[in-house]
Design a protein that fits this description.
The protein has 147 residues and is mostly beta strands. The chain is 10% helix and 47% strand. The chain contains one helix and eleven strands. The chain has a five-stranded antiparallel beta sheet, with no helix packed on it. Strands 5-10-7-8 form a four-stranded antiparallel beta sheet, covered by helices on one side. The protein is globular and about 45 Å long.
Length: 147
């Protein structure tokens, strides 16, 4: 599916109390914790009646989405709390080219009755730009090294 619906990206604001930061996440009908293995390129999914709201809580990941026969790549990491919202009908997947697994919280909004096809993997219809993806992961690793 290559509809005109677009993903939305929202950096989370926080309230700081002493040494603790509180983040307001997203309302949901269901919340899942997703473990994405290291060095992993996922197939894609498209949900007909589900909005995914993804937040990386450990590691980093590249979310792919297809719009007008072009991929949009969104890099997310635990270092910058950001929610990516993927509406129904948007073909999307995940790439983790790091050496560490990634943990993602998905605050799901059900927009109707789920269907078994919503969770059936789809091979990417176009090849991913893996060179670009590797560059994003390398750049992130080089600028976020622990000292």
């Amino acid at each position: 599916m290559t509809g005109s619906k677009r993903i939305k990206i929202r950096k989370l604001d926080s309230i700081r109390v002493g040494m603790v930061s509180f983040y307001s996440l997203a309302n949901s009908n269901q919340t899942t914790l997703v473990h994405i293995s290291s060095n992993f390129i996922d197939d894609m999914f498209v949900h007909r009646h589900q909005t995914d709201q993804l937040l990386v809580v450990k590691g980093q990941i590249l979310i792919t989405s297809l719009h007008n026969r072009e991929y949009q790549y969104t890099f997310l990491s635990e270092k910058e709390p950001t929610i990516i919202t993927i509406p129904p009908g948007v073909l999307h997947g995940a790439i983790n080219l790091s050496e560490e697994p990634c943990i993602v919280v998905n605050a799901i909004l059900h927009d109707g009755q789920t269907h078994e096809k919503d969770y059936r993997p789809i091979k990417p219809p176009l090849p991913y730009d893996i060179d670009w993806a590797q560059k994003l992961f390398r750049d992130y690793a080089s600028t976020n090294r622990e000292i």
